Each structure stands twice: as C-alpha cells, then as structure tokens.
Amino acid sequence: MERKKVTGKRAISKLVLYALHIILIIVVFLPLIFAFTSSFRPLEDLYRYVSPLTWKTFIPIKVTLDAYVSIFAEGYGTALLNSLFIAGVTVALGILLNGMAGYVFAKYNFRGKNILFFLVLLSYMVPFELLSVNLYDLIIKLDWVDTYKALIIPCIGNGMIIFLFRQYYLSFPDYLLEAARIDGMGHFAIFFRIVLPNSKAISISAGLVLFVNQWESFLWPVLVTRSKELYTVQLALSNFSTQYTKNWDQIFAGSIIAFLLPVAIIMPLQRFFAAGLTSSGIKE
Asked: Residue 279: what are its φ and ψ, rounded to 5°?
C-alpha cells in the first residue's frame, strides 16, 4: 500500500510539473505565433480578431506577403547582409584575438598579469553605456563614423570571452606544449597548430556569444551609423516606426526573420555551446 501511495504521489507531481511546463510553453510561444501569423495578414486585419480570443486570432483569414515584399523593397535585405557580415567578421576576429589573450593569461607568467586580467574582467562588468561616449569620441577622431570599422573593431574584444578561454586553457595539458617547443615550434605555431584546433567547443561557444551580441546590438550602430547602406537588422526594424505611425505588419515580418536567422545558426551548435561553457581543456 505504501509503495502505491508513493507511486501515486510521484505520478501527481509529474503531472503538475508537465502542466506547468505546458503553461510556460504557451506563455512563451503564443506571442511568437501571433507575430508570425500576423506578418501574413493585411494591415487592416491586423487587430480585427484580437478580441475576443478565438482561432481567428492566430490563423489569418486572408494571407498576403505584402509585409515581406515591402520590407525587402525598403532595404531590409541589405540590413540582413550587413548584420551577417559584421557579426561574421566579429566572430572570426573575436575567437582569434580573445583566444590568444585567454591562452596568454592561462599559460604565461609576466609582470602585471593579475592586474591586467582584473582590468579585462572589469571591462566586462562596466556597462557599455558608460563607455559609449568616450568610445564614440575616439571613433570621431579616427574618422571611422559610418564605416564597417566602427561597427566591428570596438566589439571584437570581450572580457567575458577572454575569461572563458582562460578557464578552458588552464587545464590544457602542458606536456603537449612542451613537446611542441622541443620540436622547434614558436609561440604562434603552438597556438595555431596545437591549441586552437583542440578548442572547438569553447571557440563555438565564444563565437555564438559574439554573434548574438552583434546581432542584437542597437545602441552602438545608432551612434556610429549615418547612411542606410550600413543599417543593421535592429536599425532597419526601428526604421519601420515613424513619429506618427507604426507599421506593425512590417515590424512583425522583420522581427520573425531577425528571430529565425540566429535560431537557425544556434540550434545545430547548441550542444557545443553547452560543452564549451561547462568543460575544461583536454584531459591528460
């Protein structure tokens, strides 16, 4: 009897847990479903069936691609390509430079190392808004305003990414590095031929963080961008709103594309992302 009672309690607790999960899924995904279906509605039907809540709220009566056609006619495709290019270059250079910095902090001893590492961590703790004014002043002095350099170079260095690489390389086997030195390899050869090829998980994790940061960036592109030719996805989305009106059909269509693209990149790599954040270097 006692076993049956325990089994019954476990079954009830599982049912309650599943019910809570279902409720959370509904709460999270209903707005996304509404935005997705609304992007295929004519503008005049956008809020016609919102209240009362029925199946017509989530399934459009009339289907049209006008919103998607209009956003690409207004340069949304260029903004997508700009964001992909900026994020891609930032990821490539960020993995390389932050990885090298993390490797140096993990495997080399030099004067002022702890102070420098503290400053690296501090750079990530300080909100970007506090740095943006001085950084923008530097960009003006360098004459980089409205260029790809202004959108990419300040976003390459990342204190958190350096920290993740350092933690990963702390447990990287020293005997591999010593064997490489005995074979006559220099510092750069060791990093590029031994260390970096064995850092796939942490490199993918770092790359995804850098990619998402650049994809979602809004404040910095607003400050340093002037021409529509350099608009990123977030700037293009904000451009669908004017002082007097909001083109909600275009906002929904653009937001769905801006949401699905990074998801399509992240989903196949999520197992590497989790492994990179939780694992250490190669085990001896």
From this structure: -100, 165
Whole-number Å distance between alpha carbons of 251 and 152: 26
pTM to 2 decimal places: 0.85
Give the Cβ contact number of residue 109 at 10 Å. Answer: 6
pLDDT on residue 281: 47
The domains located in the chain, with CATH, are 2-68 (no CATH), 74-278 (1.10.3720.10)
Amino acid 240: pLDDT:
82
Question: Within the chain, what is the greatest distance between any pair of CA atoms?
Answer: 80
For residue 245, what pLDDT is reported?
Answer: 66
Assigned token pair, 93: 């250079």
SS3 104: helix
3-state SS class at 241: strand
Structure tokens at 139: 């960009």
Rounded Cα gap, residues 251 and 63, in angstroms: 17
Q: Are 71 and 253 in contact, with CB atoms under 8 Å apart?
A: yes
Residue 54 pLDDT: 76
Given a cut of 50, the residues of the chain with pLDDT beneath it are: 281-284
pLDDT score recorded for residue 284: 47
- Taking alpha carbons only, the member of 210, 207, 208, 259 closest to residue 233 is 259
State the alpha helices, DSSP H only, in the chain: 2-38, 66-73, 76-107, 113-125, 128-141, 148-152, 159-170, 174-182, 187-190, 200-216, 219-224, 233-238, 248-266, 270-278
8 A C-beta contact, residue 102 and residue 162: yes
Contact 155, 264 (CB under 8 A): no
Q: What residue has token string 């190392």?
A: 113
